[in-house]
Automatic annotation (TrEMBL):
Region entry Disordered, spans: 335-376
Gene3D superfamilies, alphabetized: FAS1 domain (2.30.180.10)
Compositional bias segments (type: Acidic residues): 353-368
GO cellular component: plasma membrane; side of membrane
UniProt-listed SUPFAM superfamilies: FAS1 domain
Entry function: May be a cell surface adhesion protein.
A Gene Ontology BP annotation from the UniProt entry: root development
Membrane topology type: Lipid-anchor; GPI-anchor
Protein name: FAS1 domain-containing protein
Record's keyword terms, sorted: Cell membrane, Glycoprotein, GPI-anchor, Lipoprotein, Membrane, Proteoglycan, Repeat, Signal
InterPro entries assigned to the protein according to its UniProt record, in alphabetical order: FAS1_dom_sf, FAS1_domain, Plant_FLA
Amino acid sequence: MPPLLSSLSLSVFLFLFFFSPACLAHNITRILAKHPDFSTFNHYLTLTHLAAEINRRQTITVLALDNAAMSSLLAKQLSIYTLRNVLSLHVLVDYFGTKKLHQITDGSTSTSSMFQATGSADGTSGYVNITDTKGGKVAFGAVDNDGKLNAVYVKSLVEIPYNISVIQISQVLNSAEAEAPTAAPTLNLTAIMSRQGCKAFADLLIASGAKDTFEENLDGGLTVFCPTDTVINGFMPKYKNLTAAQKVSLLLYHGIPVYQSLQMLKSNNGVMNTLATDGANKYDFTVQNDGEEINLQTKVITAKIMGTIKDEEPLVLYKIDKVLLPRELFKEAAPAAPAPKSTKRKKATADSPEADAPSDEDPADQTADDQNGVGRLDGGRLTMVTVALCLGVMVFL
Ligand SMILES: *[C@@H]1O[C@H](CO)[C@@H](O)[C@H](O)[C@H]1NC(C)=O
Ligand SMILES: *[C@@H]1O[C@H](CO)[C@@H](O)[C@H](O)[C@H]1NC(C)=O
Ligand SMILES: *[C@@H]1O[C@H](CO)[C@@H](O)[C@H](O)[C@H]1NC(C)=O
Ligand SMILES: *[C@@H]1O[C@H](CO)[C@@H](O)[C@H](O)[C@H]1NC(C)=O
Ligand SMILES: *[C@@H]1O[C@H](CO)[C@@H](O)[C@H](O)[C@H]1NC(C)=O
């Protein structure tokens, strides 16, 4: 390799290395994995889905509890939803490194926790009081604990200024509000969609009964791609032509039974099964990102993700610009040939009455995609190397 080229590619790698989001993000699970005394706390951060919430935030302090402190909390036998509230009180949405903790302006502050920030807490509960006390101690207490600061700073585990600080405190912060019994959050999927420009899709889910299948997957993880109202309205004539069972399959085709954040979709390009997948009826599609843009390719059409309606693990809802047409129900698009609108395609079209389905597909788009194929592959390989580098460095750290 000529020296210029190799130094060029080195700088490309370094650029990708430092600017790839995969590298910037902290990962609380990985951070705590190096501290076996905190394995229970780490396990419950994952189980309550708080780990994902922590990783998503930029400026955060985790008040970590060691296995002994966790076992006294677990002895209370709180439900997983209540446990989530208690643990979210231990995640401060501000950065407190050791130095800042010992030098609090006026010796005392009250700071917002994730329990407060997610709207689960009423009034002032959800705030944590941090006070410097004599002998160089730092005391912590929930503001709704009658002024009692029941925990103290023990040690710092990790500080990455000003992104994430993980410090050990002596025991669980007492808070009647956080420990109050909580029912499973009642997420109204169709109501959320309706408020965000996907009412037509939500109405179809309700009318067809497909809504129930979506809701059954809420706890375990669910990703939904909602075509916007204008898209659904334009599609209605074709929708009405489907049998009841086909309608349900088409709607279920818009959900995948796992949580996939945008970042995960970008790094997990490839075939995805859907809620409609049933043995030989594959009902799958391919996720492929093109730079920042994420495409869903069904072989009949290619839809784009337009935005996020809601992202709160285990549920994520995206808006898409086309109805996803499964090849099990609609005619596959003819392979993009250099000659546009060839007679071959016309002939293929004539074979099936459903053949007019791909009319809302843009053939020019497909051709462009194919031409970019090689470039994208290279991009993909670069990303793989970058991720590998990141992982390597993370492991090394
Ligand atoms: C964080 O690290 C854990 C353990 O190394 C890994 O299983 C998980 O996928 C990582 N999460 C993200 C978002 O990278
Ligand atoms: C924190 O709690 C201490 C002890 O109850 C109290 O004196 C102090 O005023 C509180 N600080 C804030 C900022 O509320
Ligand atoms: C902290 O987060 C910011 C914003 O994502 C990033 O630019 C910076 O590199 C991060 N710092 C460290 C030390 O990871
Ligand atoms: C969910 O919201 C819809 C409106 O989209 C409403 O008709 C329905 O009654 C709500 N369901 C529950 C269980 O609250
Ligand atoms: C609906 O199906 C009929 C009969 O198969 C066909 O003639 C018609 O073009 C279809 N309409 C649409 C909008 O697909």
